[in-house]
Design brief:
There is one protein chain. By secondary structure, the chain is of the alpha/beta class. It folds into 2 domains: about 5-90 and about 140-235, P-loop containing nucleotide triphosphate hydrolases (Rossmann fold); about 255-490, P-loop containing nucleotide triphosphate hydrolases (Rossmann fold), CATH 3.40.50. The chain has helices at about 45-50, 75-80, 95-100, 115-125, 145-155, 175-190, 200-205, 230-235, 290-300, 320-325, 335-340, 345-350, 355-360, 365-380, 395-410, 425-440, 455, 480-490; strands at about 5-15, 15-30, 30-35, 60-65, 65, 80-85, 160-165, 190-195, 210-215, 215-225, 255-265, 270-275, 280-285, 305-310, 315, 330, 415-420, 445-450, 460-465, 470-475. The strands form 4 sheets. Strands 6-7-8-3-9-10 form a 6-stranded mixed beta sheet, sandwiched between helices. The chain has a 6-stranded mixed beta sheet with strand order 16-17-18-13-19-20, with helices on both faces. A 4-stranded antiparallel beta sheet has the order 2-1-4-5, with helices on one face. Helix 16 (about 425-440) links the parallel strand 17 and strand 18. The longest helix is centred in the middle third of the chain and has 16 residues, at about 175-190. The N and C termini lie far apart (about 50 Å). The structure holds adenosine-5'-triphosphate. Adenosine-5'-triphosphate (ATP) binds near residues 384 and 394. Adenosine-5'-triphosphate binds near residues 14, 17, 42, 43 and 394.
C-alpha cells in the first residue's frame, strides 16, 4: 500500500535536549496508525513537525510521496493534515460557526456576511454529522463536542490525514466508544489517521499498525496483530515490565477528610464522604456523575451551596484552596494547564511551591534547600527534565503532570486528593505515581482518587460510585471491571 505520510531521518534539538534523533515513521494510506512511547520520547515533537509548526533540524516529511510545503504556506499544510490536540485549539469566546471559519470568513474581500457564515457552518456540521448548534459558544461545548468540531474543521479544509493526540484523555467510557465509531467511519471513507495514546488497549482496539519511539528514536513498526502487549511495553520501556500490584493495608481510625451534606447546583446533592488515615477512597462515575465537582469542592476549587468540609480536623472555609492546603491538603487538579502549574516558572519552583512557607525563615526560601527538595522529587518521580531550573512549559505533557504530582506530595500532606492522576502518563510512570500515592498513605495520609481509569481505582480500599450527582454505591476492594462499570452507568444498583 502507498505511504500517505512519511517522516525520514528527522532530527530536532531544543538546546541541550535532542527530542528526535533520526526518527522515522511511515503511515499507509487509509490506515489508523498508533504512535506510542514513554513520556518525553518525542511524539509531540513529531506531531509539530508533521503539522508544519516546527522545522526539523535534519530530515524530511513527505505527503503522498511529495515533499511537504514550505512552513509559511499554512493553507497548504491545512489541506494535508490536521491535529486534534488534548488541549483545544478552539477559541471559547467565539461561536462554533466563527471557529469553523476562522480566517476564512469571506471568499473575497469586503465585510463578513454573518448570516451566510452561520448557514455554511450549519451545512458543514451536517455533512460531517456533528450534532452541535453552529451558534453555540465554543466555550460551552463538552470536550467530546469540541473534538468533533475540530475534526469537521480539519476535513472541511480538505485534509485526508488527521492526527489525534491523546483524544480520550478527558472522555468517559461511552464518549470514547462514540469517538471510536466515528474514527471507524472516517477510515471507511479513506481518511488516514495517526493515533497517540498511553492507553495501549485502545491501540489494539482502533489501530491497524503501531510505531514505537524510545529516547527520540524509532524502535519498531508492526501490525498490531504481530506485536503482543508485553512486547509493545518492552519496546517502549526497553525492559520487561510487570503489571502493578496494589498493596493491602488496614486503614486507621482517625478521619482526616470529611465532607458533610454537600450540595452544589445541579452537580451533586447531599453527599457525605469520609476518609480515614491510611485509607484510599475512590470516586468513580461517568462525566455527568458529579465526581470531579465533588473532589474540586473538597480541595476548595469550588464552593458548595451547602455542607461542610473538614481537613485534618480543621473545618475549612468553603472555596478556599490556600486554607485547605494550610490544613494539610495536597492535590492534583483535573486540568493541569489551569490549576496545576505555572508554565513559565521552573520545575523546581512549581514542585516546591507548597513548602515555600516552610523552607525559609521570614517567608524567604533558601534556593539551595528548594533545589535539593526539587531534585529529590525529580528523582523519585523520574521526571525527564534538564534539571530544576527548566521551565515546566518545555516539558512533555506527561512530565508536566509529574511536576503537578510532585507539588501535591512535596509537603507530606495528611490528605491527598488526586483527579485523573495518571492522565497522559506513560505505562511505567503510571506505576510510579500510583506507588507514590500508596507510599503517602502508608505514612499515614488519607487519599481520594478520582479517576476514569479502572486501573487507578484498583489501589482504593473502597470506591464510591456516583450517578447523577449522588453516591449510589460504596464498593469494597475485589470488584470486577464489569461490576463497577455497570454501577457507573446506572445499569445495576
Ligand atoms: N520547546 C521545548 N524546549 C525545550 N525542550 C523541549 C521543548 N519541546 C519539547 N522538549 C523536550 O523534548 C523531549 C520530547 O518531548 P515530547 O513533548 O515530544 O515528548 P512526548 O513523547 O510527546 O511525551 P508525552 O507522552 O509526555 O506527551 C522532552 O525531553 C521535552 O522536554
Amino acid at each position: 500500500m502507498k505511504n500517505h505520510v512519511e517522516a525520514r531521518n528527522v532530527v530536532k534539538r531544543f538546546g541541550p535536549t535532542t527530542a528526535l534523533n533520526g526518527a522515522e515513521i511511515a503511515i499507509s494510506e487509509g490506515e489508523t496508525h498508533a504512535l506510542v512511547g514513554r513520556n518525553g520520547a518525542g511524539k509531540s515533537t513529531l506531531v509539530s513537525i508533521l503539522t508544519g509548526l516546527q522545522r526539523p533540524d535534519e530530515g524530511e516529511v513527505l505527503f503522498s510521496g511529495e515533499t511537504a510545503p514550505a512552513l509559511a504556506d499554512r493553507d497548504a499544510w491545512r489541506q494535508r493534515v490536521a491535529c486534534v490536540y488534548q488541549k483545544s485549539t478552539i477559541i471559547p469566546a467565539l461561536t462554533v460557526a466563527e471557529n469553523l471559519f476562522l480566517n476564512r470568513q469571506t471568499t473575497g474581500s469586503g465585510p463578513i456576511n454573518w448570516r451566510a457564515l452561520r448557514v455554511r457552518a450549519g451545512e458543514l456540521l451536517e455533512t460531517y454529522e456533528v450534532d452541535v448548534d453552529a451558534q453555540a459558544l465554543a466555550g460551552d461545548l463538552s470536550v467530546e463536542q469540541r473534538q468533533l468540531v475540530e475534526i469537521a474543521r480539519a476535513l472541511s479544509f480538505g485534509a485526508r490525514f488527521i492526527i489525534l493526540d491523546e483524544p480520550t484523555a478527558r472522555l468517559d467510557g461511552p464518549a470514547i466508544e462514540r469517538l471510536f465509531a466515528r474514527m471507524r467511519s472516517l477510515r471507511e471513507q479513506g481518511v488516514t489517521m495517526m493515533y497517540i495514546s498511553h492507553h495501549l488497549d485502545e491501540v489494539y482496539e482502533i489501530c491497524q499498525s503501531v510505531t514505537v519511539f524510545r529516547d527520540a528514536r524509532h524502535i519498531v513498526t508492526k501490525t498490531v496483530a504481530d506485536l503482543p502487549h508485553d512486547e509493545l511495553v518492552a519496546a517502549m520501556t526497553g525492559e520487561a515490565t510487570a503489571a502493578y500490584e496494589s498493596r493491602s493495608r488496614t486503614p486507621g481510625d482517625q478521619v482526616v477528610l470529611s465532607g458533610a451534606r454537600l450540595s452544589l447546583g445541579d452537580r451533586y446533592a447531599d453527599v457525605d464522604i469520609s476518609v480515614k488515615s491510611g485509607e484510599v477512597v475512590g470516586l468513580a462515575g461517568s462525566a455527568s456523575s458529579g465526581k470531579v465537582s465533588l473532589a474540586e469542592t473538597l480541595v476548595g476549587l469550588r464552593k458548595p451551596d451547602s455542607g461542610t468540609v473538614t481537613v485534618n480536623g480543621t473545618r475549612v472555609r468553603p472555596g478556599d484552596v490556600p486554607a485547605a492546603m494550610r490544613a494539610g491538603l495536597g492535590f492534583v487538579p483535573e486540568d493541569r494547564h489551569h490549576e496545576g502549574f505555572v508554565p513559565l516558572l521552573s520545575v523546581g519552583e512549581n514542585a516546591t511551591f507548597p513548602i515555600a512557607r516552610k523552607l525559609g525563615r521570614y517567608g524567604v526560601v533558601s534556593p539551595s534547600r528548594r533545589r535539593a527538595k526539587a531534585e529529590q522529587m525529580i528523582k523519585s518521580l523520574d521526571i525527564k527534565t534538564e534539571g530544576p531550573d527548566q521551565p515546566v512549559a518545555d516539558l512533555s505533557g506527561g512530565n508536566a503532570q509529574k511536576v503537578v504530582f510532585a507539588r501535591a506530595l512535596v509537603d507530606d500532606p495528611t490528605v491527598l486528593v488526586v483527579i485523573n492522576p495518571t492522565a497522559g502518563v506513560d505505562v511505567k510512570a503510571k506505576q510510579a505515581l500510583l506507588g507514590a500515592v500508596e507510599d503517602a498513605v502508608e505514612r499515614g495520609a488519607g487519599a481520594v482518587v478520582v479517576s476514569d481509569e479502572l486501573a487507578d481505582l484498583r489501589i482504593c480500599d473502597r470506591v464510591l460510585v456516583m450517578f447523577h450527582g449522588r453516591v449510589v454505591k460504596d464498593m469494597p476492594r475485589g470488584w470486577t471491571d464489569h461490576e463497577l462499570v455497570a454501577v457507573m452507568e446506572g445499569i445495576e444498583d
